[in-house]
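New to this. Explain the following:
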Amino acid sequence: MVQQPTSDSIIDMFTRLGQTLPIPNFDVDRIIAHHRRNLEALEQSARATAEGTSALMNRQREMLQSMISQATENARGIKMPSSPQEMMTSQVDLARKAFEAAVENAGELGTIMQRSGSASVDILRERIKTAMNELQDGFNKPQGSTPPPTQQV
């Protein structure tokens, strides 16, 4: 009677399974290279996103500084209006300018965000396309086989 080991590790079980099943050989170096390129694409995408975020934050800081400077300038230029209509007109004009600046700034920030996101997605999209081609090529070429010898006449 053959005795089986009492406690098999998962690795031992998979090793025996791999030895008994007719599984084709895998090119481990090729698989590692494939995943390395995937990670490199993720790194490039993250870098593009970080650069876009940095540009966005720098521009927001510049906009805030400009807004504070403009508000300070407007506060210095305020004269006591002679009538309630002048006061209302002055306040409406200031509010209109602030609203127009806010809309313009929001549009500019949106454009920066869109460019950053597009650059990041484009990097990933290109890697996915390349990876799919690599996989297709892997399925089309038999692993570990050599080309047939040429016949000499």
Q: What stands out?
A: The chain has one domain: 28-135. Residues 28-135 form one domain. The CA atoms of residues 67 and 117 lie 27 Å apart.
